[in-house]
Amino acid sequence: MQSDTPFSSPGQRAGSSAGPFGSDAVVPVSALNRAISTMLERTFPLVWVSGEVSNFTRAASGHWYFSIKDAQAQMRCVMFRGRAQYAEFTPREGDKIEVRALVTMYEPRGELQLNVEAVRRTGQGRLYEAFLRLKAQLEAEGLFAAERKRALPAHPRAIGIVTSLQAAALRDVLTTLARRAPHIPVIVYPAPVQGVGASEKVAAMVETANARREVEVLIVCRGGGSIEDLWAFNEEALARAIAASELPVVSGVGHETDFTIADFAADVRAPTPTGAAELVSPQRALLLRDLDHRHATIARSFGRMMERRAQQLDWLARRLVSPAERLQRQRTHLQQLQVRLASAGARPVRDARARFALVQLRWQRWRPDLAMHRNALAGLAQRLESAALRHHERQTARVETLAARLEVLSPKRTLERGYAALLDAQNGRAVRSPSALKLNRRLTVHLAEGSADIALADIQPRLSDSL
Fold it and tell me: 92: closest CA among 137, 128, 52?
């Protein structure tokens, strides 16, 4: 609960010298009550309080109003409907109870009260502590380990029930089993489920069911009740008997919110006895539906197999022939093989002849034609002869032309016109200048009709530019 009073803050402690209620402060009653309520809620945590119920009243709104008292004092209590509807019992005048409550104040009247969140009978706290101690002990020993849990049979041949013959849970379980699986026999192992020695008797029935081997799964169940009523299923003897059972055990004790040591030791916990019956029994309608489906599947498979067999039979019948027909088929096959053999023997000769004809044709195609080549050679010889003759005639004409030209240019023609050529007799060089003429020098004179050697005796040079 939060407070909007201006006289308190979250970090302020009651009785602090810095508090808002000084000697001169004037505050309204509502603000004072709100400050006190806030301080109470912050100072006192949730606490269990024990006492005797008095002045119990259930309002039309569903809220509970009562007082809890002991020999020296009392305290008013309120339990609102949202929490009261989950209480396991309704307190009555004079009941010894324990309440888990928050200390608060009803501000309009300035009355101190307990805002109750949970209620239980006196002694349940000690029972719950004993429950937790035993649970921790057995869990440490591995009795609750998941790997030791056994799977429930899918189609049990018989179901065993350990419970009281007068228990309403037995009727619920039998009704559920008769509705879901009327074909499965049920064996009841009677044992008291409440009172002194009930735990040992239930454990003895679990051991008896294991010894007789009459069933394949075992249900340990009883209806709902207080923690004292269910305490027989929180005893160590029953927990060890369930853990040692070779038969799978389903625990269906109390309501969905009730947990017992037997629930943890069992292979499967069911929320209610009816739920336990549903867990161990396959539903007959579903089994019949599955059986019909499997029957239809088998019928279809058998029909398909018969069709395949009939087809195989027809195929074998076609293969089955008389000996005479088989001999005739073999003769026909032999004749075919003979024809194929003859054809296979003639084929290489035929192929060789074809290859030979092809080679011959190719050879004839590339064989040289001597007559044609002779004619070509004669033509070439005639052309060569004609070309040589024409070349000789051209060369002859050219020589004659050059001879005529040479004749025209010949020095003899010049000498025939009266000229002479002087050559030095020693070196054969032509004398071109009068200065080259020296006394007693021998010269060779070339004339038109011959040559003569002369020696110069008298030299009178005369230069002339022209003849």
Answer: 52
Residue 10 has pLDDT above 50, yes or no: no
Burial track 374-403 (b if 16+ CB lie within 10 A, e otherwise):
eeeeeeeeeeeeeeeeeeeeeeeeeeeeee
Q: Which fold has domain 44-122?
A: OB fold (Dihydrolipoamide Acetyltransferase, E2P) (2.40.50)
Nearest partner of 30 among 115, 113, 109, judged by Cα? 109
**Distance between CA atoms of residues 73 and 76, nearest Å:** 11
Burial label for 136, CB within 10 Å (0-12, 13-18, 19+), is exposed
In whole numbers, what is the pLDDT of the chain averaged over residues? 83
Q: How far apart are CA 280 and CA 278, in angstroms?
A: 6
The model scores a pTM over 0.90:
no
The residues spanned by each domain of the chain are 44-122, 127-282, 285-343, 414-455
Position 280: which residue type? V
| Among the listed residues 79, 72, 75, 80, the one whose alpha carbon sits nearest the alpha carbon of residue 54 | 75
Whether the pLDDT of residue 452 is over 70: the answer is yes
CA separation for the pair 140, 229 (Å, rounded): 26
CB proximity list for 77: less than 8 A, separation 6 or greater: 64, 65, 66, 67, 68, 99, 101, 113, 114, 116
Give the 3-state secondary structure of residue 106: strand
